TrEMBL record:
Activity regulation info: Inhibited by UTP.
Protein name per the record: Uridylate kinase
Residues noted as binding ATP in the record, renumbered to the chain: 10-13, 53, 57, 160, 166, 169
Signal peptide: none
EC number: 2.7.4.22
Source organism: Thiomonas delicata (Thiomonas cuprina)
Localization in the cell: Cytoplasm
One of the record's GO cellular component terms: cytosol
Length: 236
């Protein structure tokens, strides 16, 4: 069905809220899992990183006055919660998923060990990388780029609230237009805020393409994995 054997899927944490003000919307997570199941059942190995913006963001208003590193650790813990919720929804859908955290919380979740993650993927299990990079001052987009490179994913798929990369943030600029494709250097130089520059630079240096597409568009994930033109491709 596709040329891809192994992909890294970055899911927006904020998208998990659905129409709610914060947290995890049940219907939204179930829909996300249905889309992932279609791809996983086709034989593609899928590793996932989910953000934490629906629960906590270290640089957000709620963290004003806090020590930045402490706030960032709270953000990383939020991604552990989202990862557990995602794995639970996957179990309900009959999928086998393992959560591996960059921060050790052994009573709750397995710690990230690269060979073990590779073994799970080869066994056909979904692997959810929680806890970001395990370091403050980073983001889950950078964690996704890092893990994608570590596991030898062929592409990083960023499923987000917008349907690609625009000339400016489409949420605030209605005149913004969407790129079908864009080079890493152009995305970095133009400071397009859809992803942080560290994540773009890591993918560029590893020759790892990124596809940005809408998490809400029905069938978009499957089309992306089938190699169809969807959203925006970021390339060398
Ligand atoms: N040039 C741009 N093109 C597209 N989107 C942009 C651009 N600039 C800013 N954005 C914004 O980037 C955001 C990306 O959303 P997303 O929820 O994936 O972010 P995130 O920080 O990775 O979320 P989370 O941390 O919750 O996973 C969108 O809300 C979009 O409005
Ligand atoms: O490697 C990482 C990943 C994340 N954080 C903190 O968590 C929040 C939530 O992650 P998002 O990517 O914004 O969804 C982020 O704002 C950071 O505060 C981190 O410190 N290190």
């Amino acid at each position: 069905m596709s040329g891809y054997k192994r992909v890294l899927l970055k899911l927006s944490g904020e998208a998990l809220m659905g129409d709610d003000a914060y947290g995890i919307n049940r219907a939204t997570i179930v829909k996300m899992v249905e889309d992932i199941a279609q791809v996983a059942r086709s034989g593609v190995q899928v590793a996932i990183v989910i953000g934490g913006g629906n629960i906590f963001r270290g640089v957000a208003g709620g963290a004003v006055g806090m020590d930045r590193a402490t706030a960032d650790y709270m953000g990383m813990l939020a991604t552990v919660m989202n990862s557990l919720a995602l794995a639970d929804a996957m179990r309900h859908a009959g999928l086998l998923a393992r959560v591996m955290s960059a921060i050790s919380i052994d009573q709750v979740v397995e710690s990230y060990v690269r060979p073990k993650a590779l073994q799970y993927l080869e066994e056909g299990k979904l692997v959810i990388f929680a806890g970001g990079t395990g370091n403050p001052f980073f983001t889950t987009d950078t964690a996704a780029a890092l893990r994608a490179a570590e596991i030898g994913a062929e592409v990083m798929l960023k499923a987000t609230k917008v349907d690609g990369i625009y000339t400016a943030d489409p949420a605030s600029d209605p005149a913004a237009t969407r790129y079908t494709s864009i080079s890493f250097d152009e995305a970095i130089v133009k400071r397009l805020q859809v992803m942080d520059a560290t994540a773009f630079a890591l993918c560029r240096d590893q020759g790892l393409p990124i596809r940005v597409f809408s998490i809400f568009k029905p069938g978009a994930l499957l089309r992306v994995v089938q190699g169809e033109s969807e959203g925006t491709l970021v390339h060398l």
